């Protein structure tokens, strides 16, 4: 078959390279070369055609064989799948049974452990309750002592507050007394100053009145008219 294609390729090359006939689309090819290539094609075709026919004749057999092999493969696959399903189901049942047994053992152990834990928890709870009661009693007793101490301390604080209030009141009284004494002293000084001012004013008024009084005639100094002399 390869020689057929090779000869055809050579024929195409001869035609493409052939010298053309002027004014036409024809060409001049070497007759001997073309005939030789055509002989090669004629010689090669029968064997290739026979081979192709053999392939066509065997096609039905090949398809039948392939179909039989496919059916056999599918059947084997189905059988294998069924076997695997059975094995998987049996394995799953064994796992479930083992899990059920383990669960039953765990539940039994859990019940025993639960009873033990419950008993220990009850004992611990009783102990904690008693400890809480003891702590409460101690706290109450301590509270009573602290209350008595605070009451006593409160009486001392109250006495201190009373003493402080008394001292503050005495200080206020002393301040008021000193303020009254200061006011009396200032008032006395202002009265003395007022008397002094009154005396001074009377002296000034007397002096002014004396200045306004005219002198007697005999005591006047004569005035001479120097122009008349």
General description of the model:
The chain is an all-alpha fold and 229 residues long. 86% of the residues lie in helices and 2% in strands. It is built from two helices and two strands; from the N terminus they run H-E-E-H. Strands 1-2 form a two-stranded antiparallel ribbon. A hairpin with a 6-residue loop joins strand 1 (19-20) and strand 2. Helix 1 packs across helix 2 (31-212). The longest helix has 182 residues, at 31-212. The radius of gyration is 76 Å and the shape is elongated. The termini are far apart. This is Cell division initiation protein. Keywords: Coiled coil. Residues 67-120 form a coiled coil. It comes from Saccharomonospora piscinae.
Largest sheet: 2 strands, antiparallel
- Helices, by number, come to 2
Rounded to the nearest angstrom, the radius of gyration is 76 Å
Mean pLDDT: 80
Global morphology: elongated
Q: Spatial order of the strands in the main sheet?
A: 1-2
H and E string: HEEH
Q: Low-confidence runs (pLDDT<50, min 5 residues)?
A: 220-229
Structural class: mainly alpha
Helix content class: over 70%
Cα distance spanning the termini: 196 Å
Please report which band the strand proportion falls in: under 5%, 5-15%, 15-25%, 25-35%, 35-45% or over 45%.
under 5%
Can you count the beta strands? 2
Coiled coil: 67-120
Organism: Saccharomonospora piscinae
Region (Disordered): 207-229
Protein name: Cell division initiation protein
């Amino acid at each position: 078959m390869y020689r057929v294609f090779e000869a055809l390729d050579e024929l195409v090359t001869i035609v493409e390279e052939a010298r053309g006939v002027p004014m036409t689309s024809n060409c001049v090819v070497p007759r001997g070369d073309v005939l030789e290539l055509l002989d090669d094609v004629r010689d090669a075709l029968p064997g290739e055609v026979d081979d192709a026919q053999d392939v066509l004749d065997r096609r039905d057999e090949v398809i039948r064989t392939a179909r039989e092999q496919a059916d056999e493969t599918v059947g084997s696959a189905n059988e294998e799948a069924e076997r695997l399903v059975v094995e998987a189901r049996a394995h799953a049942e064994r796992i479930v049974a083992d899990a059920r047994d383990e669960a039953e053992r765990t539940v039994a152990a859990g019940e025993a452990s639960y009873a033990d834990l419950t008993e220990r928890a009850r004992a611990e709870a009783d102990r904690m309750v008693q400890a809480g009661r003891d702590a409460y009693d101690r706290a109450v007793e301590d509270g009573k002592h602290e209350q008595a101490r605070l009451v006593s301390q409160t009486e001392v604080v109250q006495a201190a507050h009373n003493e402080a209030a008394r001292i503050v009141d005495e200080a206020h009284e002393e301040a008021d007394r000193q303020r009254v004494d200061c006011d009396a002293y200032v008032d006395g000084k202002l009265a003395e100053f007022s008397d002094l001012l009154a005396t001074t004013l009377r002296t000034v008024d007397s002096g002014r009145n004396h200045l306004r009084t005219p002198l007697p005639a005999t005591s006047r100094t004569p005035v001479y008219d120097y122009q008349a002399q």
